[in-house]
Structure to design on (573 residues):
């Protein structure tokens, strides 16, 4: 089954048209990468998929059902979004933040129950943040913080996980940790949509990559078909060197020397 | 969780009890069994109004802080209180003769103020903490000037105008109308209760609108509702007491220091502390200035240093 189907979407920010007749479909259980230059519409696409932004024409289906037939809360029960960065105005503990992932399952004013606490424990264990549970979210490192956010997303038990450059400001270790958790989710049959600035990262882990520029889809295929010298030059305006990854054979992009 | 951290709750209840005791047993007339009936008829209603005014302002302040992710806002700094005061002024000088119009006008004035401030500050997206407060100060100043102008043009005394802008628990603005006071009190409490019931949504929106949306909370609708309900509650209070400063800023912040930021705990805690603080401020006012002094003089003397501390720490 298809996890996400976008059919003939038109979307404009006020006067500025971004997507006209955009169509795209993502299979269930896929690790799907979206790459493209700044302002190409990657983040907007994620926000359309999660129903945060409203499109002007066309149709989006999630797990075969029209997005507009779901309430906000229903969408939140199977679609989760990992933002690039999170800010906290107040001193929440790590555990509080992870527990917020249970919000879609709780009635107004109801307290979290045993199942909610169990899901939070599992999520913290899987992301390795259990020992941070009592700490203030503002007193841990950026990498730890992003793992806490991933734990919150796990507690949300989503079928579809959307990552918006979620690893871009992290060091190597934390970057790999996030990718590891996402691959684990993929192996459980979840769909992961991975927006990234890092072409090599997208190429290395995604089963399919979408290349988008100025709101238009230029390619959507296996990484070796998309990360090509031709397309990269066309989109980014730089002449790259592309060579296969020594271990996996996936294409990797090197910057030219001057 | 928070409810079990009892020492904190003891502190809050202690402050409230201290406020009630000072309010009932001290004051220009002192306290003796001979003047018991006047104590009961004069001071007990004042205790009731003080509890509701302080409690409700603190609950609304705490909710606004969460909603706008900003520790510096409360009904006073956002200009909502002066909006309500302006509404009350318009009702008073229009001379409709109907008391009923007063709280309604105060509510509409509060709503106008918060809408104006929100638009001036450019909504919530990417707005610096200080910009919202700046917009609040501007609106507040403008509305206060209008209150003063209209009151004097409408042949009210300057003293009345000052009480309306800076608060007084002696009910100087309306003729004694018990049932209307009761209705306003119930509406203010109902508004606070609504905010308390939506505590978890406030928790989530205190992170980010987009995060709230992705967790199933309709952020736009919640924002509108909190503005509406908060304005209603503040309007109901200000119509009777005038605008009282900083209680809604200090109380929620102190409660957060005790219990953490969960609104389910912060809001009821703020109610207790706000009520206690306001009663203490009022007993200071009555004891040092029997002839009368606006409440905000005392609350601001405590609130402003606190505001400066928050500004240094958070911005």
């Amino acid at each position: 089954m298809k996890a996400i189907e976008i059919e003939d979407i038109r979307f404009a920010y006020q006067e500025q048209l971004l997507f006209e007749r955009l169509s795209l479909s993502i299979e269930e259980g896929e690790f799907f990468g979206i790459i493209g230059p700044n302002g190409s519409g990657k983040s907007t696409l994620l926000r359309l998929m999660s129903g945060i932004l409203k499109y002007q024409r066309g149709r989006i289906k999630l797990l075969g059902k029209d997005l507009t037939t779901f309430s906000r809360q229903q969408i939140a029960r199977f679609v989760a979004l990992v933002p690039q960065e999170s800010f906290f105005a107040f001193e929440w503990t790590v555990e509080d933040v992870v527990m917020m992932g249970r919000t879609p399952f709780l009635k107004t004013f109801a307290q979290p129950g045993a199942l909610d606490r169990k899901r939070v424990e599992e999520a913290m264990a899987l992301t390795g943040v259990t020992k941070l549970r009592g700490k203030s979210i503002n007193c841990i490192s950026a990498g730890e913080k992003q793992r806490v956010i991933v734990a919150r997303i796990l507690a949300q038990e989503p079928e579809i996980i959307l990552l918006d450059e979620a690893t871009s400001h992290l060091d190597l270790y934390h970057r790999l940790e996030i990718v590891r958790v996402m691959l684990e989710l993929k192996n459980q049959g979840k769909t992961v949509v991975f927006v990234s600035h890092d072409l090599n990262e997208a190429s290395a882990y995604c089963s399919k990559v979408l290349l988008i520029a100025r709101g238009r889809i230029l390619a959507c295929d296996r990484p070796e078909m998309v990360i090509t010298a031709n397309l990269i030059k066309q989109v980014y305006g730089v002449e790259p060197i592309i060579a296969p990854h020594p271990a996996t054979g996936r294409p990797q992009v090197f910057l030219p020397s001057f | 969780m928070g409810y079990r951290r009892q020492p904190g709750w003891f502190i809050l209840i202690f402050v409230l009890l201290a406020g009630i005791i000072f309010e009932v047993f001290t004051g220009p007339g002192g306290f003796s069994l001979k003047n018991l009936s006047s104590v009961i008829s004069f001071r007990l209603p004042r205790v009731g109004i003080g509890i509701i005014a302080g409690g409700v302002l603190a609950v609304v302040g705490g909710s606004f802080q969460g909603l706008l992710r900003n520790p510096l806002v409360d009904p006073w700094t956002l200009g909502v209180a002066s909006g309500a005061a302006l509404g009350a002024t318009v009702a008073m000088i229009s001379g409709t003769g109907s008391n009923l119009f007063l709280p309604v006008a105060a509510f509409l004035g509060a709503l106008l103020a918060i809408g104006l401030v929100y638009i001036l500050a450019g909504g919530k997206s990417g707005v610096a903490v200080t910009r919202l407060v700046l917009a609040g100060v501007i609106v507040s100043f403008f509305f206060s000037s209008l209150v003063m102008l209209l009151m004097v043009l409408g042949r009210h005394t300057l003293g009345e105008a000052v009480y309306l802008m800076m608060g007084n628990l002696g009910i100087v603005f309306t003729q004694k109308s018990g049932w209307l006071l009761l209705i306003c009190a119930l509406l203010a409490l109902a508004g606070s209760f609504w905010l308390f019931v939506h505590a978890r949504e406030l928790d989530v929106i205190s992170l980010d609108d987009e995060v709230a949306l992705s967790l199933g909370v309709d952020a736009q609708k919640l924002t509108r509702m909190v503005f509406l309900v908060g304005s209603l509650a503040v309007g109901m209070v200000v119509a009777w007491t005038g605008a009282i400063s900083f209680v809604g800023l200090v109380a929620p912040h102190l409660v957060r220091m005790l219990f953490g930021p969960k609104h389910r705990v912060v809001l009821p805690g703020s109610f207790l502390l706000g009520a206690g603080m306001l009663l203490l401020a009022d007993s200071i006012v009555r004891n040092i200035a029997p002839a009368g002094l606006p409440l905000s003089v005392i609350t601001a003397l405590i609130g402003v240093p606190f505001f400066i501390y928050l500004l240094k720490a958070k911005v």
